[in-house]
Structure prediction request, 116 residues.
Amino acid sequence: MTREALKQEVERFLEAYSLCPEGKAAAQAYLEAFGTEHEQEKAKALIQEIKEDITGIDDLIAFAESEAGKAVFGEEGAKNTASAAKEAKAKGEDTCICPACQSGKILLANEREIIG
Prediction:
């Protein structure tokens, strides 16, 4: 991935509705530092935040099927999320299917290019 493509992926990551506040802060800090002497430092922090937050597909399924998941997604939303996650897992997906985790997965796959 080119540097510009990686920057665009971080922008997509930042825009994900499912991104937590800490992820938003790390992505914003990275984008603000992009092309400066602080970029590598902020890139490392961003990658660390993604590693802490990214969710596996089995964890998503378990959460969606739990009472906590029903409280977050609503009864129907939890059922739909669990169903979609199981379908994705059957097709080989190993990561949560939300936009933040999917974008984070791409960024982690390109960790060396981001950190430099």
User: Anything to note?
Assistant: Residues 14 and 24 are 6 Å apart (CA to CA). The chain has eight helices and no strands. The helical segments are 3-15, 21-33, 39-53, 57-64, 67-73, 75-90, 99-109, 111-115. The chain has a mean pLDDT of 96.
